[in-house]
Amino acid sequence: DEFMSELYEMNLKDRLSEEVFKKNVRLVTGPWKAGGGPVNVVLEGNADTLQHLVDIGRCYIKWFSFPVRQHTAVYSCFRCLSFDHMVRDCRMASEVCRLCGIAGHIASRCQNDARCRNCAFKGLPAGHLMMSTACPVYSAIVARANARH
Predict the structure, then answer these.
(1) What sign has the CA pseudo-torsion 53, 55, 59, 60?
(2) Is the pLDDT of residue 126 over 90?
(3) What SS3 class is residue 99?
């Protein structure tokens, strides 16, 4: 309650009413202990209301300043890293390497160059990591998810 009250009073009081804030924003992360190290705070809510925080770029709680970033959840298959299905529907028998996209080994032991499996399947240049900002397939999925919100 104290965090949400501070968030509103120090950052959003001039931009929207307290009723709108309380109705449209909720704290997703659970309580944490002081002195326990860095903590990411996740808020969910109405896109228009949260956009006020994103526009400010920083939020202030007590005497601390924190960067604000928008997070878009993009789901993929844990086994093959494809975006068109979840692991329960995956046809791969084993996980693929997150670095080179080949099954049979893991990224920490991979000696191959980076190769995006999703771009290779689509015939696009694939000399980058899967799920990186350099990946046009991943960027398109993120853009589509952002457009829904």
Answers:
(1) negative
(2) yes
(3) coil
